[in-house]
C-alpha cells in the first residue's frame, strides 16, 4: 500500500472524473485538475468566489463549480480551457446545483425550493420546474440517465413527477400515499421507484416507471420509522434501515420482507467475526519500530492500532439517545451494498463505533468492526467486495471477506481522515482530511494478503 | 373465689392447724390451746399440769375433758379412799386419745399435702392466667393495630381510587387535547403550507416580474449535445415516442425478470425432479426385501409403482399440464417419506426408551434363541454320542483289520452324508436366523451378535469335534471329544463369557467359523491307530495333552485376527485336559 504526497483542498471538495483519468480539487476559489496517474496539474481555473460545490459532468469534459452564497454557477471545460460558462441565479438564490445525466444541462434549486431551473448549455434555454419538495432526497436520476424523478408538494399533497431527461418532457405525474414524503430512489435497473415517508411514519412505497403503485410496505406503526433506504446494485434487494435499529430487506418480486437484520448491543450465537480495534501502547510501538528499523516521524508518536478478533459474546458500546431531542441518534442511518450485491454494510447511529457487514447470500451477519472512535465514512470498493472506512483519525481501515486491516497514513503533520472516496477502478482511495487530501494506492499483493 | 384463695395462700404457715380446726369447730379454743403446747413442750407442760398435790383435780379435769370429747369418762375410781386414777379406763382413754391424735395428724398431713398441691396448682393457674391475660392484651393490641392499618389502607385505597379516577379523567382530557391539538396542528400545518406556497408564488412572481437582469446564463459558445444529435422539436410524435420508450424499458425489464424467473423455475423443476427420483429410489428398495413381510407395504409398493409411471408421464408432458400431477405425486411421496421418517423417529425413540431396561425386553427373544441353540447343541451332542457309541461298538467287536477298515469307511461315509444333511439343515436354519435377525431391532441385533458368538464357538467346537471324530486324528480324538462334551455341558458361563468377548470382535468371524468342511474326514485311519487312540491312551497321556494343546493353539493362531476367540479356546483346552484325565482314570 502506497501513499501519495499531501495536497491542499477545501470544503472536502475533491472528485475523480467519471472516466477515472482526472482528479479535481477545490482550494478556496481555485479549481485544480490533476492527472490521476501522475498527480500533475493539468488545468487550473479560478472561480469568482469560494466554491461550495463541485461536480464532474458525466462525460468528464466539464466541471461545475457552485458558489451558493453568491447564487453563481461556473462551468469549466477540460478540453477548452478558454471556454467558460457562468450562470447567475440572481436574487432568487441558490441552494443546490447539479448536472443532468447528459452533462449538457444544469439543474439549480433556488432558495426556499421555489423552483428548479434547468439550464441548457446547448441552447442557453432555461426551463423551470415548480413546487419541488424540500426533503431528504427529493430528486433522483435513473442509472442510465434517461429519467428523473422529482418529489413535489402541491395542495398539501405529495406527488412525484417523472421527467424524460432528454428534453425534460413530463412523462408521469402522480400523487403518492405519503403523509410527508422524505425521499425517493430509482432501482438500479431504472424500473422501480422506491418512495419513503418521513420518520414519523414507517412507510415505503414502490412505484413502477409508469406511475403504478407496485407495493406498500410498513413494518410497524406509532414509532419513528424509516431512516435510510438503499437498493442493491442488482436491484434484487431493497434495504430499509429504521429507527428501531433494524434493517429490513425486501425482495424484488413480491416486495415482501425476506429477512430482518438486527443490531444487538451484545453479539452472541453468531458465526460472524467480531473485529475490535485495539490500540497499542507507544512503548511497544517504539520497540517494534526499532526492530523493523523504520523511522517515520508521524507514526512514531501516534498510537498504533490493529484489529483483534474477539471471542463471543461481545458487548458493542452503545450510546443512549436523548428522548427529548428531535432526530435522536438511534437507528440505522447508512446502508451500503457492495458492488457485487454480496455484502451489505450498515451503521447503527447509537453504536457509532461499529460497522456491521451482512452476507446477502447467507442472509446473516458476516462481520462486525468495532473501532475506538466513531466511524465517519465507509464506502465499498466499486469493483471488489472491499470496504474502506475512516474514523476521523490518521488511519484507514479496510475490510474484505478475508480479513481486516488498519493502516496508518504515513503523512507528516496532523492528517485526520474525515472522509474517503474510491477511484472508480478500485485501485486507489482518496483520503480527505480537514484541509488536505492524500491518495492511497492499493497494491495487489496487499489485497491478496487480505483475501488469503 | 380467687381472692379468697389468695388470702388463704398468704396464711400458709398456719394453714395446717386451721384445717385441723375446721374439722371440729366446736373445740376450737381448746384444741388451739393444747395443740401448741402438745407439739413442742409435752413433758414439761404435763409435769406442770399434774403434781403430787393436784392429782385428783387433774383426774377430774381430765375426766371432764374426756367427757366433753365424748369418751368414756371413767378415769375416776371412786374408791372410798377418794377418787384415784383408774388405770384401765385411763389407759383406754389415752389410747383413744392417741388414736385420735394419730388420725388427726394423718388427716393433717393429707390436708397439708392437698394444700400444697392446691397451692401449686393455684400458682400454676395464676401464672397461666397472667400469661393468658398478657396474650389477650397483646392480641388486643395487635388487633387494634391491624384495625388501624386496615383503616389506613382503606383510606389509601380510597385516595388511590380517587387518584385513578382523576388520572383517568386527565388521560381522557389529555387524549382529547392531543387529538384536538393534532387536528389543529395538521390544520395549522396545512394553513401554513398554503401560506408558504402563496408566499413562494408571490415571491417567484415578484422575482419574475422584476425582470431580474441578473438571472442569466453566460456561455462563450453553445455546446453540442452529448450524443451528438440535434435537439428535436416537441411534437406529439415525440411524446408518443417517450411513452413507447418508457414502455420498452419496462417491457425489457419485465422480460429480463421473466427470463430470470423461468431460469429459476427450470432449475427448481430440475431439483424437484431429481428429488422425486431420489425419493422414489429411496422408497422402492426399502420395500423390496420386505415384500413378503407386510401386506400394506406391498400395497404401497404397488401405489408407488403406479405413481412412478404417472410421474414419468408427467415429466414428459409440458409443465403446465404436469404441474398439478407432479406436485401431487411429490406431495404424496413427501408425505410417505415424512411418515416413514416419523416412524423411524418413533422407533428410535422407543429404542431409546427401552435402553434403560434393555435386559427386560430382549429377554424373551433371547431365551427363545437360547433354547433353540441349546436344542441344536443337544442334537449335535446326541449325534456325537451315537458316533462314539458306534465307534466303541466297532472296537469292541474285534473285527479283523480289513473289515474294520471297511466298516470304518462305511461309517465315515454314512457319517459324512449325515453330516452333510445336518449341515444343509443347519445352513437353512442359519439362513432363517439371518432373515429373522435382519428384522430385529437393535436389541435383536445385539442378541444376534451373542448368537453369532455362540455359533462361532459351536462351529469351532464342531469343527474340532468333527476333525477329532474322524479316525485319522488318532489318539486325540476320544479324549478331546470327551473333554469337549463335558466342557460344553459344564462350562456354559464360560461360553457366555467367550460370547461376550467375541461380541466385540467383528461379525465376519461367524462365516469363517461356521463352515467346517466334512471333506476333511476323507482320510481313513488304521485300526491300530484307533486302538491306540482309545485304549492305549494312558501310556501317552501326557504327550497327548501337550500335543492336544499344541494343536489347539495352532488352530487358533491360524485365525490370528481374533485374539479373543483364541484366548477363550485356550481357556477351554486347559479345562478339557483335566476332564480327559478324569474320564480315563475312571475307565
From TrEMBL, chain A:
It comes from the Eukaryota. GO terms for cellular component: microtubule organizing center; MWP complex. Signal peptide: none annotated. InterPro entries: Centrosome-WD_assoc, Quino_amine_DH_bsu, WD40/YVTN_repeat-like_dom_sf, WD40_rpt. GO terms for biological process: lens development in camera-type eye; retina layer formation. This is WD repeat containing, antisense to TP73.
Automatic annotation (TrEMBL), chain B:
It is found in: Cell junction, Adherens junction; Cytoplasm, Cytoskeleton, Microtubule organizing center, Centrosome, Centriolar satellite. Keywords: Cell adhesion, Cell junction, Coiled coil, Cytoplasm, Cytoskeleton. It comes from the Eukaryota. Residues 182-209 form a coiled coil. Residues 508-522, 549-558 have a biased composition (Polar residues). The keyword Lipoprotein does not apply. Residues 286-316, 473-522, 540-573 are annotated as: Disordered. GO terms for cellular component: adherens junction; centriolar satellite; ciliary basal body. GO terms for biological process: cell adhesion; determination of left/right symmetry; intraciliary transport involved in cilium assembly. Its main location: other. Residues 297-308 have a biased composition (Acidic residues). InterPro entries: Adhesion_Centrosome_assoc (IPR052300), Afadin/alpha-actinin-bd (IPR021622). Belongs to the ADIP family. This is Synovial sarcoma, X breakpoint 2 interacting protein a. The lineage of its organism: Eukaryota, Metazoa, Chordata, Craniata, Vertebrata.
Amino acid at each position: 500500500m502506497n501513499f501519495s504526497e499531501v495536497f491542499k483542498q477545501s470544503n472536502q471538495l475533491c472528485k475523480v472524473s467519471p472516466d477515472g483519468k482526472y482528479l479535481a480539487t477545490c482550494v478556496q476559489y481555485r479549481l485544480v485538475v490533476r492527472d490521476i496517474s501522475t498527480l500533475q496539474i493539468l488545468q487550473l481555473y479560478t472561480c469568482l468566489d469560494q466554491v461550495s460545490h463541485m461536480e464532474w459532468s458525466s462525460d468528464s469534459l466539464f466541471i461545475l463549480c457552485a458558489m451558493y452564497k453568491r447564487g453563481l454557477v461556473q462551468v469549466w471545460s477540460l478540453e477548452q480551457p478558454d471556454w467558460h460558462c457562468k450562470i447567475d441565479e440572481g436574487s432568487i438564490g441558490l441552494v443546490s446545483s447539479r448536472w443532468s445525466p447528459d452533462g449538457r444541462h444544469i439543474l439549480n434549486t433556488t432558495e426556499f425550493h421555489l423552483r428548479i431551473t434547468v439550464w441548457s448549455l446547448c441552447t442557453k434555454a432555461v426551463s423551470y420546474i415548480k413546487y419541488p419538495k424540500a426533503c431528504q432526497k427529493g430528486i433522483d436520476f435513473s442509472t442510465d440517465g434517461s429519467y428523473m424523478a422529482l418529489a413535489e408538494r402541491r395542495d398539501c399533497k405529495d406527488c412525484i413527477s417523472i421527467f424524460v431527461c432528454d428534453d425534460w418532457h413530463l412523462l408521469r405525474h402522480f400523487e403518492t400515499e405519503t403523509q410527508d414524503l422524505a425521499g425517493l430512489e430509482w432501482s438500479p435497473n431504472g424500473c422501480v421507484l422506491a418512495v419513503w415517508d418521513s420518520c414519523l411514519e414507517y412507510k415505503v412505497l414502490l412505484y413502477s416507471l409508469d406511475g403504478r403503485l407496485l407495493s406498500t410496505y410498513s413494518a410497524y406503526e406509532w414509532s419513528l420509522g424509516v431512516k435510510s433506504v438503499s437498493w442493491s446494485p442488482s436491484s434484487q434487494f431493497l434495504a430499509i434501515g429504521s429507527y428501531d435499529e433494524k434493517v429490513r430487506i425486501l425482495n424484488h418480486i413480491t416486495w415482501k420482507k425476506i429477512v430482518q437484520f438486527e443490531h444487538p448491543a451484545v453479539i452472541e450465537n453468531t458465526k460472524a467475526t467480531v473485529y475490535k480495534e485495539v490500540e497499542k501502547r507507544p512503548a511497544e510501538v517504539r520497540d517494534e519500530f526499532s526492530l523493523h528499523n523504520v523511522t517515520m516521524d508521524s507514526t512514531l508518536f501516534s498510537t498504533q492500532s490493529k484489529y483483534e478478533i474477539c471471542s463471543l459474546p461481545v458487548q458493542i458500546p452503545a450510546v443512549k439517545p436523548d428522548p427529548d431531542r428531535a432526530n435522536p441518534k438511534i437507528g440505522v442511518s447508512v446502508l451500503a451494498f457492495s458492488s457485487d450485491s454480496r455484502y451489505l454494510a450498515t451503521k447503527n447511529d447509537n453504536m457509532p463505533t461499529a460497522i456491521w457487514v451482512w452476507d446477502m447470500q447467507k442472509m446473516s451477519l458476516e462481520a462486525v468492526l468495532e473501532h475506538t472512535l466513531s466511524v465517519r465514512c465507509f464506502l465499498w470498493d466499486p469493483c471488489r467486495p472491499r470496504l474502506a472506512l475512516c474514523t476521523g483519525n490518521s488511519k484507514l481501515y479496510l475490510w474484505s471477506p478475508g480479513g481486516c486491516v488498519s493502516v496508518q497514513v504515513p503523512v507528516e503533520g496532523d492528517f485526520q481522515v474525515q472522509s474517503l472516496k474510491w477511484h472508480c477502478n478500485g485501485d486507489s482511495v482518496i483520503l480527505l482530511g480537514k484541509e488536505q487530501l492524500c491518495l492511497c494506492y492499493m497494491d495487489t499483493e496487499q489485497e491478496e494478503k487480505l483475501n488469503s | 373465689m380467687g381472692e379468697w384463695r389468695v388470702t388463704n395462700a398468704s396464711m400458709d404457715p398456719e394453714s395446717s392447724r386451721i384445717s385441723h380446726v375446721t374439722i371440729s369447730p366446736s373445740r376450737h379454743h381448746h384444741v388451739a390451746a393444747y395443740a401448741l403446747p402438745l407439739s413442742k413442750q409435752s413433758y414439761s407442760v404435763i409435769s406442770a399440769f399434774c403434781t403430787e398435790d393436784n392429782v385428783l383435780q387433774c383426774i377430774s379435769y381430765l375426766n371432764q375433758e374426756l367427757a366433753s370429747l365424748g369418751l368414756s369418762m371413767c378415769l375416776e375410781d371412786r374408791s372410798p379412799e377418794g377418787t384415784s386414777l383408774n388405770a384401765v379406763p385411763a389407759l383406754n382413754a389415752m389410747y383413744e386419745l392417741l388414736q385420735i391424735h394419730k388420725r388427726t395428724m394423718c388427716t393433717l398431713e393429707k390436708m397439708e399435702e392437698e394444700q400444697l398441691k392446691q397451692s401449686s396448682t393455684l400458682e400454676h393457674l395464676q401464672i397461666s392466667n397472667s400469661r393468658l391475660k398478657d396474650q389477650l392484651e397483646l392480641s388486643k393490641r395487635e388487633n387494634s393495630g391491624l384495625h388501624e392499618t386496615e383503616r389506613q389502607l382503606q383510606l389509601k385505597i380510597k385516595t388511590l381510587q380517587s387518584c385513578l379516577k382523576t388520572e383517568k379523567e386527565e388521560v381522557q382530557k389529555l387524549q382529547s387535547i392531543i387529538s384536538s391539538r393534532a387536528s389543529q396542528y395538521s390544520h395549522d400545518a396545512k394553513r401554513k403550507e398554503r401560506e408558504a406556497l402563496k408566499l413562494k408564488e408571490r415571491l417567484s412572481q415578484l422575482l419574475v416580474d422584476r425582470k431580474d437582469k441578473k438571472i442569466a446564463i453566460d456561455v462563450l459558445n453553445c455546446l453540442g449535445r452529448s450524443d451528438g444529435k440535434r435537439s428535436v422539436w416537441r411534437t406529439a410524435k415525440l411524446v408518443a415516442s417517450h411513452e413507447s420508450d418508457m414502455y420498452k424499458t419496462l417491457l425489457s425489464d419485465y422480460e429480463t425478470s421473466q427470463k430470470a424467473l423461468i431460469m429459476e423455475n427450470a432449475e427448481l423443476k430440475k431439483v424437484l425432479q431429481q428429488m422425486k427420483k431420489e425419493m422414489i429410489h429411496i422408497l422402492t428398495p426399502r420395500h423390496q426385501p420386505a415384500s413378503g413381510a407386510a401386506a400394506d407395504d406391498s400395497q404401497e409398493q404397488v401405489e408407488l409403482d403406479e405413481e412412478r409411471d404417472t410421474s414419468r408421464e408427467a415429466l414428459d408432458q409440458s409443465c403446465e399440464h404436469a404441474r398439478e400431477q407432479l406436485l401431487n405425486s411429490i406431495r404424496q411421496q413427501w408425505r410417505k417419506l415424512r411418515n416413514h421418517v416419523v416412524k423411524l423417529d418413533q422407533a428410535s425413540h422407543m429404542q431409546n426408551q427401552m435402553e434403560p431396561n434393555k435386559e427386560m425386553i430382549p429377554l424373551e427373544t433371547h431365551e427363545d434363541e437360547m433354547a433353540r441353540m441349546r436344542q441344536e447343541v443337544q442334537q449335535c451332542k446326541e449325534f456325537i454320542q451315537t458316533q462314539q457309541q458306534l465307534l466303541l461298538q466297532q472296537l469292541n467287536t474285534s473285527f479283523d483289520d480289513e473289515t474294520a477298515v471297511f466298516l470304518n469307511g462305511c461309517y465315515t461315509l454314512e457319517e459324512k452324508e449325515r453330516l452333510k444333511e445336518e449341515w444343509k439343515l443347519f445352513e437353512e436354519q442359519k439362513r432363517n436366523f439371518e432373515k429373522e435377525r435382519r428384522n430385529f431391532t437393535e436389541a435383536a441385533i445385539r442378541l444376534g451378535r451373542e448368537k453369532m458368538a455362540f455359533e462361532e464357538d459351536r462351529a469351532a467346537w464342531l469343527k474340532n469335534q468333527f476333525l477329532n471324530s474322524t479316525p485319522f486324528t488318532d489318539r486325540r480324538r476320544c479324549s478331546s471329544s470327551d473333554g469337549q462334551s463335558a466342557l460344553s455341558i459344564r462350562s456354559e458361563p464360560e461360553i457366555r463369557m467367550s460370547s461376550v468377548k467375541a461380541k466385540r470382535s467383528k461379525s465376519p468371524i461367524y462365516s469363517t467359523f461356521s463352515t467346517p468342511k466334512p471333506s476333511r474326514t476323507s482320510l481313513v485311519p488304521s485300526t491300530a491307530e484307533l486302538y491306540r487312540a482309545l485304549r492305549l491312551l494312558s501310556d501317552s497321556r501326557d504327550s497327548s495333552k501337550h500335543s492336544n494343546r499344541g494343536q489347539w493353539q495352532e488352530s487358533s493362531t491360524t485365525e490370528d485376527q481374533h485374539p479373543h476367540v483364541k484366548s477363550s479356546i485356550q481357556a477351554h483346552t486347559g479345562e478339557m485336559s483335566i476332564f480327559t484325565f478324569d474320564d480315563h482314570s475312571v475307565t
